[in-house]
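Hey team,

Filing this mostly as a record. A colleague (T.K.) asked me to run one chain through the structure pipeline before their review meeting, and I want the input and output archived in the tracker in case anyone asks later how it was produced. No errors, nothing strange. Just documentation.

Input sequence:
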Amino acid sequence: MSGWVGRIGRSSTVHVSFAFLAMGSWALFANRVHPLPRMLLAGLVQGTLSACLTLYLKSAVEIFSTRFKGSAALIAPPLIACLGSASILIAIHALAATPEILRTVAVPLAVSTSYAAIYNYSLLTGKGK
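Output structure:
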């Protein structure tokens, strides 16, 4: 990637901000049948977690993509990121008493795993540098 598209694509701030807005909004939707304070807390918790996890995912994939070789280099970094994300999401939402934990984390986990896999692939093929 080159030019302004490349700068945006590599920007941690853009990745993190998008994750907060998109996944926080999803959590609001996933918890829409519950009272407003619980719904808003779920959205804030998920938005914050997604922002932090996106930074973690981006960094973890960048680190692990150089530590594995062959097919493991394609599979291991997103798998490690997915397992770490799932553990953190479920634990924090349980602590926050999010009403719809599985609905709340399903989409962010699918998106973050896809993100990690695509970003990892772009790094391995040289398109993410």
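Quick notes for T.K.: Residues 36-64 form the longest helix (29 residues). The radius of gyration is 15 Å.
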